[in-house]
Amino acid sequence: MKAKFIGKSLIELDAVSSTNEYALDLIKNDIVAEGLIVFAKYQTSGKGQKDNFWESEKSKNLLLSIILHPNFVKVEEQFLISKAVSLAVADFVNTKVDKVSIKWPNDIYVDDRKISGILIENTLSGNIISNTIVGIGLNINQIDFISDAPNPVSLKLLTGKTYILDDCINQLSFFIEKRYKELNNDFNKTNFDYLKSLYLFNFFNLYEAKGERFVAKIIDVENNGELILETRQKEIRKYFFKEVSFLNLK
Ligand code: BTN
Q1: What's the rounded Cα separation, in Å, for the pair 177 and 175?
Q2: Is the beta carbon of 119 within 6 A of some atom in ligand 1?
């Protein structure tokens, strides 16, 4: 179980503002080989989705950014990269625990708790994705979470075991490479597996959009990232990230 090009080059930092920012500086100044990983023990301004801060205690978790050149992915279908990467992180987590799912767009959940967040930043040249920075925060050995992030969890909290971070990087790299190659060869498989792993896929749940609450089920996720919901009255509603939130039915 060894990746060939993902993680072949690895930059390891004690502390950095954000591995995504560091990777962004690298690609601004140079042509960077595909698969380079920037890994940090600590981030002073780890970036999350929706401008949130990503919490991670020093040397406890995976904080890394991978540089890819997915020139085989159309700009208007760039969410395919997110699907493949989410599947890879879920594959890795699945080797340690059960009940792993992907919460749209790309959070990794175990049961109802978030174990990993992904922040993908693409650089376009014309109609081509020239660089993608795949930022992954994956909670491994941390047991206390102090920020107000909803329901964080780590592998250690779930299993009681302590994991070796270097081993986790190698294993995760293997799955990223596998899912990335799969995306290149057969994106229908990526789409099929993504929906199969999706949290609340085909289950009615309460959602909120533009101040309105409604019950609907997820029936698809487009390759541009749009979430497709169907209400009980069979009305189809489509949302981009941040336009809709999940409210749990109790
Ligand atoms: C989320 O909010 O769910 C996404 C979190 C992404 C965090 C990772 S940690 C490594 C990389 N560097 C960053 O600054 N952010 C991502």
Answers
A1: 5
A2: yes
Give, using CA atoms, the residue closest to atom 7 of ligand 1: 137
CATH number of the domain encompassing residue 237: 2.30.30
- By residue count, the chain amounts to 250
Q: Are 70 and 85 in contact (CB under 8 A)?
A: no
Question: Ligand 1 pocket, 190 CB below 6 A?
Answer: no
Question: In which order are the strands placed within the sheet that holds 245-247?
Answer: 236-239, 227-231, 212-221, 205-209, 245-247
Residue-averaged pLDDT of the chain = 96
Residues 132-174: tens digit of each pLDDT: 999 999 999 999 999 888 899 999 999 999 999 999 999 999 9
Counting the structural domains of the chain, the total is: 2
Selection from 41, 34, 32, 39 nearest residue 10 by Cα? 39
- Ligand 1 binding pocket includes 63 (Cβ within 6 Å): yes
Burial of 237 (0-12, 13-18, 19+ CB in 10 A): middle
Closest ligand 1 atom to residue 52 Cα is 2
- For the Cβ of 48 lying below 6 angstroms from any atom of ligand 1, the answer is yes
| 140 plus 119 within the same structural domain | yes
The 10 Å Cβ neighbour count of residue 87 is: 27
Q: What does the pLDDT look like over 215-225, one tens digit per residue?
A: 999 999 999 99
Task: Answer yes or no: do 193 and 210 share one domain.
Answer: no
Q: Is 117 in the pocket of ligand 1 (CB under 6 A)?
A: yes
H/E stretch holding 149 reads none
* Domain extent for 76: 10-197
Q: How far is the CA of 126 from the centre of ligand 1 (A)?
A: 26
User: Measured between alpha carbons, how far is 249 from 235 in angstroms, rounded to an integer?
Assistant: 20
